[in-house]
From TrEMBL:
UniProt keyword Transferase, yes or no: yes
Protein name in UniProt: Benzyl alcohol O-benzoyltransferase
This protein's UniProt keywords: Transferase
Superkingdom to which the source organism belongs: Eukaryota
InterPro entries from the UniProt entry: CAT-like_dom_sf, Plant_acyltransferase
Pfam families, alphabetized: Transferase
MF annotations from Gene Ontology: transferase activity
Signal peptide: none
Record has Transferase as a keyword: yes
Amino acid sequence: MTRKDFDSRFRSCSFIATAPSMQGKDPVEVIREAVAETLVFYYPFAGRLREGHNRKLMVECTGEGILFIEADADVTLEQFGDALQPPFPCFEELLFDVPGSAGVLNCPLLLIQVTRLKCGGFLFGLRLNHTMSDGSGLAQFLTAVGEMARGATAPSVPAVWERYVLNARNPPRVTCTHREYEEVADNKATIIPPDDMAHRSFFFGPSEISALRKLIPPHLSHCSTFEILTACLWICRTIALQPDPTAEMRIICLVNARGKFNPPLLPRGYYGNGFGLLVEVATAGELFKKPIGYALELVRKAKASMTEEYLQSTASLMVLRARPLFTVPGTYIVSDLRRAGLEKVDFGWGDAIYGGVAKAVPELASFYIPFTNKKGEDGIVVPFCLPAPAMERFFKELEGMLKGQLGSDEEKSKFKLPSS
């Protein structure tokens, strides 16, 4: 995968039920008008990305606007199933990919589709050029759209563009090791081919998280849910993919810089990308053979590397190496959206039944999305996308972990670990 091949589009969707208080209101018209009003404050979204010297990206505020699609579907919310979670049936029809609109450069930065359902509810789908904003920035923008839809004249949180706060030093100076941007050849065939991909989501409620915690050694019992879940999924995914035992496997945690530092690095209202890519590396054999605490310690170490100096060093690396793509071979990326607030966006019809990403990134990434299952349990839903045979192995390994088992004998024989 090259930097030209990587899909930098972020897709989210929200399923919203009918509300008696909004009887007679058309969600398409309400949201279209609110988006137009909000873009006055978030005007860069109405422009187009250009590429300058050394591949530096810049927004030309052309005022060309975004894409907005109005649609109707002869289905009800109930027909999407009891548990509204990715993958969603017919999603391509619920967020139409307008031909010629999906490029990073010289294309609309936002595409929004509002689809009325015959039950009175509706679906709000969105595609964002991820070079403009992260999950927190998108949630801030959509919250503002919701406020305008409910009658506000300005967003409660001011829109702040100040990208210069993350500019590289002059002259640029890389002071940290950045294994997330290493140039690595895929000699071990660790890039996942796009054929025969299976999409599936996994729910982790209180009982599932408790089961995973029982696998953790006592000296790591204080670890966070994010850390434990990430370590377990990294191990299961590695086993499922059956890489060469000597292949390097990377875990990249996307860590939000907002609220991380005192004084804050990013001003209140900043809606650009404000996260760091924090990485640790292990061989596939190490992840499989060593206790779960090994992977957990690596995840904790990755998160702990989030410092202002690390972000400054990353900005300098972007300049000196002309905006390189992160390392792809053997990489698994995790993005925690539990506190982003996408499910809390209210256009006047109340909170969404589901609000979050539409699906996993097939080659690379999963997202942690807040979710309430049909039993009323609050937890995390994690979309996954793997080749179909690997998905079966992943499910088997995860099921074993939840039952207190680590690594089946059958999978050990397939993994062909080298003798120690």
